[in-house]
Write a structure and sequence with these properties.
Blueprint lengths: L10 H4 L5 E6 L5 H14 L4 E5 L5 H12 L7 H25 L3 E5 L2 H10 L5 H12 L6 E6 L2 H11 L14 H17 L4 E5 L4 H16 L2 H14 L4
Parallel strand pairs: 1-3, 1-4, 2-3, 4-5
Bound molecules: thymidine-5'-phosphate.
Thymidine-5'-phosphate (TMP) binds next to helix 5.
């Protein structure tokens, strides 16, 4: 059997789960840096949270990451690549994300299903029904509670990504695509944010790191925190203000 759909445990058990946050966007948008800020904030208000990434997060999924980012699967075409990313995701969900959420931990994931929608679906011009079916089979009932989409001019993003790489290290399978690819990719992510405003928030990632972090944290507090957590977050801001 593929993925289990909603187990029907109902709303009573659902409220006891952790929250699932995903970060998306083009290359060099600063997702990993922002994830560190998010984790620090969640920990400060007393939430147990873990960071993970896609493709990857579990040993099997990391093995698939190696194949996918080396470009060895490129000649199979975008539909097969989409299925390989999804295979990695299924393992990641079943063995890491779902168990953590059930233990009431919050999970912050660097890329998730929107990357498959944008990189394989939109850029590979794949059939929308195929993409929807693949996503449903892969995710089952698990959709992110919040998706932050970091929006950046690809010229700036690619320059940042190149800087981050070690000297002599080449661009990976997707970084190596032409600028036109990355411009269209940016539009694909913006399109997702526009279509799903309840789940997604688009943030201008060209602003400084601290400004981006402050905006993300505000969105998390407003959208995901209950009154008790919001009060703790307020107290933190108050405590960090210099004394008058
Ligand atoms: P990153 O971890 O450095 O962002 O690298 C992951 C790369 O894999 C990035 O170029 C985006 C790409 N990717 C897809 O094409 N489809 C996917 O579903 C995911 C998760 C990533």
């Amino acid at each position: 059997m593929a993925r289990k759909f909603d187990s029907g445990e109902g709303a009573m058990t659902r409220v006891k789960r952790g929250k699932f946050i995903t970060l998306e966007g083009g290359e060099g948008a600063g997702k990993s840096t922002q994830i560190r800020h998010i984790l620090a904030h969640l920990t400060a208000v007393g939430i147990t949270a873990l960071a993970t990434r896609e493709p990857g997060g579990t040993p099997h999924a990391e093995a698939l990451r190696e194949v996918l980012l080396s470009g060895r699967a490129k000649n199979l075409g975008p539909a097969a690549e989409a299925m390989l990313f999804s295979a990695a995701r299924i393992d990641h969900i079943e063995n890491l994300i779902e168990p953590a959420l059930r233990e009431r931990k919050w999970v912050v994931c660097d890329r998730f299903s929107d990357s498959t929608r944008a990189y394989q679906g939109a850029m590979g011009n794949l059939d929308a029904r195929f993409m929807q079916a693949l996503e449903q089979v892969t995710l089952g009932a698990l959709y992110p509670d919040l998706t932050i989409i970091l929006d950046i001019d690809p010229r700036l993003g690619l320059a940042r990504a190149a800087q981050r790489r070690g000297q002599g290290e080449g661009a990976d399978r997707f970084e190596g695509e032409a600028l036109a690819f990355h411009k269209a990719l940016r539009e694909a992510f913006r399109d997702i944010a526009e279509r799903e405003p309840l789940r997604c928030v688009l943030i201008d990632a060209a602003q400084g790191e601290a400004k981006v972090a402050a905006q993300i944290i505000k969105v998390i507090d407003e959208r995901l925190f209950d009154a008790r957590l919001r009060a703790r977050a307020e107290a933190l801001i108050h405590d960090s203000r210099p004394a008058q």
